[in-house]
Design goal:
Helix content: over 70%
Number of domains: 2
Structural class: mainly alpha
Strand content: 5-15%
Number of helices: 6
Order of helices and strands: HEHEHHHHE
Largest sheet: 3 strands, antiparallel
Shape: elongated
Length: 141
């Protein structure tokens, strides 16, 4: 059953919105760089105790820099490139290909009426977000 890309994206947005999913791209490399740089500067000015203090301060600064950058998953989905959307559509189609829906309205009704199917799609979506986008997913407020 051919389904339009925009319909699939709307459906995935609805499912993720229902679970209040948010995602943040991990910037652990940037945090590690800040930690190392501050520890290095601390070592230059304070010797071994300066490394310890610089590492601690740098670690806290790096953690602060990389936290709190979560966006709602529906917003992230709508900002995907056409190639990324196509890959997501392919994964979606692999899950729903055996359903008997003939159009988008029937497909949405089938998916929204089945908790098991919604869970499979959520699992697929979380896997896509973590693997393809390198993001961390959170649920709730």
């Amino acid at each position: 059953m051919p389904v339009a890309m925009k319909d699939v994206m709307r459906l995935l947005c609805s499912i993720s919105e229902e679970k209040k999913m948010k995602a943040a791209v991990k910037h652990s490399g940037r945090g590690a760089l800040v930690t190392g740089a501050v520890a290095f500067v601390g070592g230059l000015f304070g010797g071994p105790p300066g490394i310890a203090v610089g590492g601690t301060v740098g670690g806290l600064l790096g953690a602060w820099m990389t936290s709190g950058q979560f966006q709602p998953v529906p917003q992230i989905l709508m900002e995907l490139s056409p190639a990324q959307q196509q890959k997501l559509l392919n994964e979606f189609t692999a899950i729903v290909r055996d359903l008997d829906g003939t159009d988008a309205v029937q497909l949405v009704a089938l998916v929204m009426g089945s908790e098991a199917l919604k869970q499979r799609l959520l699992t697929m979506l979380v896997g896509y977000i973590t693997k393809e986008l390198g993001a961390e997913v959170q649920y709730g407020d």
